[in-house]
Amino acid sequence: MSTRRQFMKLSAAAAAGCMLQPSREALAGDMPKLAEDDPTAVAMKYVHDASKVDPASRTNPAPEQNCANCALIQGADGDEWRPCPIFPGKAVAAAGWCSVWAPKA
Ligand code: SF4
Fold first, then answer.
1. Which residues line ligand 1 (CB under 6 A)?
2. Is the separation of the CB atoms in 63 and 103 below 8 Å?
3. Fewer CB under 10 Å: which end of the chain, C or N?
């Protein structure tokens, strides 16, 4: 996937997530955990354990990718499960990963 296409997808998903979840950024505790077999999770290649992802399969080659160091993660640093606008209403594992991963600025 091109960087531009990935950016557009990421931007659209983030915008949708913000509209759907305007005030729940830090409330992962009451969210259900995203299942790896959730259709959206499958489409985004989400896994709970980023260490199981073959780095060669990633579009973005940056090392040590996981949800906790992704630009899109929300909630509080240190929490095991945190909100992500790509999966509105579900919490993702801080140690997880999906194909939308982007580095923090
Ligand atoms: Fe969300 Fe994790 Fe994917 Fe980043 S890598 S977009 S935090 S699920």
1. 46, 67, 70, 72-73, 84, 86, 92, 96-98, 100-101
2. no
3. C
CATH of 3-21+28-93, one of 2.60.40.1190, 3.30.450.70, 3.40.50.2300, 4.10.490.10: 4.10.490.10
Mean residue pLDDT across the chain = 84
DSSP H helices in the chain: 3-20, 39-43
Across the strands, what pairs with 82?
Answer: 92
Q: Where are the domains of the chain?
A: 3-21+28-93
List Cβ neighbours of 102 (8 Å cut-off, separation of 6 or more).
6, 10, 60, 70, 71, 72
Q: What is the DSSP letter of 53?
A: S
Question: If you measure from the C-alpha of residue 21 to the centroid of ligand 1, how many angstroms do you get, rounded to a whole number?
Answer: 16
- What SS3 class is residue 56? helix
Q: What would the pLDDT profile of 24-74 be if each residue is shown by its tens digit?
A: 445 667 899 999 999 999 999 999 999 999 999 999 999 999 999 999 999
